[in-house]
Amino acid sequence: MKTIIEPFKIKSVEPIRFTSKEERIRLIKEAGYNPFMIHADDVLIDLLTDSGTSAMSSKQWAGIMDGDESYAGSKSFYRFEETVKKITGLNYIIPTHQGRAAEKILFSVVGGKGKFIPNNTHFDTTRANVEFTGAEAVDLLNETGKHPEIRADFKGNMDVQKLEDFIKNTGKENIPLCMITVTNNSGGGQPVSMQNIREVKSVCKKYGIPLFLDACRFAENAYFIKKREPGYADKSVLEIAQEMFSYADGATMSAKKDALVNIGGFLALNDEEVAQQCRNLLIVTEGFPTYGGLAGRDLEAVAQGLEEVLDEHYLQYRIRSIEYLGEKLVAAGVPMIEPPGGHAIYLDAKRFLPNIPPEQFPGQSIVIALYIEGGIRSVEIGSVMFGKYDSSGKLIPPPMELVRLAVPRRVYTQSHIDYVLEIILEVFKNRNSLKGYKIVYEAPMLRHFTAKFEELR
Fold this sequence. Notes:
The protein has 457 residues and is of the alpha/beta class. It has helices at 21-30, 58-66, 75-88, 99-110, 124-132, 160-170, 194-207, 218-228, 237-246, 272-285, 296-308, 312-331, 349-352, 362-374, 383-386, 414-429, and strands at residues 45-46, 92-96, 116-119, 136-139, 178-181, 211-214, 250-254, 265-269, 344-348, 376-377, 379-381, 388-389, 395-396, 402-406, 437-441, 452-455.
């Protein structure tokens, strides 16, 4: 079949409130030119994030009604635990209310000043939780992954040689764990190959360093392996996911992505002693170890979602819907990370707006223009999100300036995506009229959530 249809029927709908361009100009200015501060009712198509924005299935909603709300020993926890163990093979499963809670607990236990956490690319909350402990988050993305215009199958891979060199130079005793993010969110939603996971594991094993997966999009990554990596075409997505996790000593997951739920996450480990320390901290910050900050109904929904996300008809539709938008943009000459990733389109703001330097935040300029032109909410992944300052206060920009349009799962139809395409093309056509911005307020960490901007004239 040439047409990939949505593998579901729509059972419940939510109305969209339409706004005028004049309204949106006023609204974005009142929000300090930060789309995080806009009321959701004032957004037509919300591509800010794919986290917690999925449409749940009828079976997930049925699970919510069936959830066991016992404080300790809930049967919903045991279903959740069984499902996670089936996929990951990890021994100790600790539920949390979302992925960053798992990160906070893990790095509070293993992090600290003088420690280093290598990753293919840390995402914002992972980096923040590492650095909050005094440790340093280190990105070791392969060289191809740093070039948006180069097409390659596994641009999310870690540079294995750089990892080994980093361990030798830093000292294995200063590296409590190594992480691989699948798929690589900050790197454009790009997948990581099984070969790369094996090679990273081999280096980690050589130096006695545990390997963890940031697994929030594990199913999408497994599907890319099935489609692109030799030897996996005849394997099920579950079998591929199980092999991925077999190389890991632990994992964090925001279930708000590939578990198709609105809230939830977990920390999974094989080390009993570390697991006990994490559980002790969980009790202080999240709740009893069999609910971890979640209602029983949420545990049911996560368990059901983890089963549904492995359906290959769903994954084919999911990956193809992102690919469809990417193909149309590339054909029109819009610069983006190629090929399209699993959950989002990443516009390349450096090539989109070469006249606006990083210190004037070209990605933020595109984000604002997309909202004004068509009510589309997206997010900058560049110097706003990851930029730092040197000792003189000068911006140190990250390698790439990107705009992410993350597509919620099972929410929008092809006509919504075609509308997004039209708006991006309109903004691209008028790109020479866009201005840079300056930050007038920023928080000390994760500033992109609450920063305020002014347009430069």
